[in-house]
Design a protein that fits this description.
The chain is an alpha/beta fold. It is about 40% helix and about 20% strand. The chain is built from 15 helices and 20 strands. It has a seven-stranded mixed beta sheet, with helices on both faces. The protein has a six-stranded mixed beta sheet with strand order 9-8-7-10-11-19, sandwiched between helices. Helix 14 links the parallel strand 17 and strand 18. The structure holds nicotinamide-adenine-dinucleotide.
Amino acid sequence: MPSTEMAWEYAPAPESRELVRIAPEYGLFVDGTFVPAAGGHTFTTVNPASEEPLAEVAAASPADVDRAVKSARGAFDDVWRRMPGSVRAKYLYRIARILQERAREFAVLESLDNGKPIRESRDVDVPLAAAHFFYHAGWADKLEYAGFGPAPHPLGVAGQVIPWNFPLLMAAWKLAPALAAGNTCVLKPAETTPLSALLLAEVCQQAELPPGVVNIVTGAGETGASLVDHPGVAKIAFTGSTEVGKQIRKAVAGTGKKLTLELGGKAANVVFDDAPLDQAVEGIVNGIFFNQGHVCCAGSRLLVQESVAGPVVERLKRRMATLRLGDPLDKITELSQAGEAQGAGRWSPPCQLPERGYWFAPTVFTGVSQSHRIAREEIFGPVLSVLTFRTPEEAVTKANNTPYGLSAGVWTEKGSRILWMAQRLRAGVVWANTYNRFDPASPFGGYRESGFGREGGRHGLEAYLDV
Ligand code: NAD
């Protein structure tokens, strides 16, 4: 399985740009072809590391969304739902294989459009996206053995809205299970990172996926809202902020549409005094600085047992001094200032930030209390808050003291303590002696303000079946 272990090669070298051809303009992917938006509107996508404009992208109006949903419905009724699962599987395998063949192109494009280190897009995002298609191809002809009854039916058209932090991977998380289950899709990528989804549309063409089975409509929040509101959509799958998730839940209420929400998080990473500390420090760094901390399940609250707090923070700072940097600024700056104003100790390794682009140094706050904003609000950046605890009970109380519940980590040598903690932590995923590990066979999702529903594994299929 691809690892998410930290590595610090930064953005693609200039020559690697030659691996990817970025067109000056992109249309919407509707009914198997690229078309301009009906109103002719476009928006610009930029490289956040340099602020260089990359391309103009079509902004879909409600009329375009309507066209995409109708195309998806036609493909559902006439082709996709009638096709044997083994044939649907063949298309998913093809997509997975083409993703692997074009992996370098995807990795460079993702790093240019999103700003994430090439090492992460190459070693995590792209291989995991391919793995998702492979895994779900395996399910397409075995749905009757998935535990949802002898003949589970697809729902129809899935409307899917995704964020900017893992653009290609989130597209794969949405499309692969929906298609395996026999649904057709209209996907709306984030307006800041549309390019890898549009390249994936090209892959659908290359795989000769029947027209209309996958449609991609680019645009901002209004485009997402018109997809959510469209009466022809049977299922909404959303990944993004808790705030927008709440709006979507209201919009969908009473419509009979199925809904899954994958929202924000404020995960606790709990380190006990018997944990192997060097390994735990690697896990803490991976937990909060992987993808510049733009990770819903980032371990942004470090709970460290008081007796080892000193050495852990010292080793953490030493390790942070070897990091190189990442992404956007505004909210991260505001919350970090609030951390200082509320009395927490702030530290960043000495590093030079480029003058252009959206950069923020990796930062750790010590002396954080539970009432501090930096301990409560999702920062979604490379900022770690360190709190201490004395007993396992106190660790659980503090870890669960959040409106979120997406993920948590536990570091200890004792297996019994891992199980004891896992039973009490209110989090959809609990990692033990590791952090930020993903696998298509493993369900992922949250509690409370982190949303509901699961993606991945057998559980993830349920969201796309009429069961
Ligand atoms: P966001 O909610 O601002 O945007 C997400 C998507 O929703 C974008 O495509 C956006 O255009 C669209 N959108 C905005 N307003 C909409 C509306 N009214 N109706 C329909 N669609 C609308 O989130 P973001 O800033 O792109 O992403 C960051 C958030 O996503 C963080 O909170 C993070 O924790 C969360 N996230 C969660 C998971 C998970 O699996 N739980 C994974 C990744 C990111």
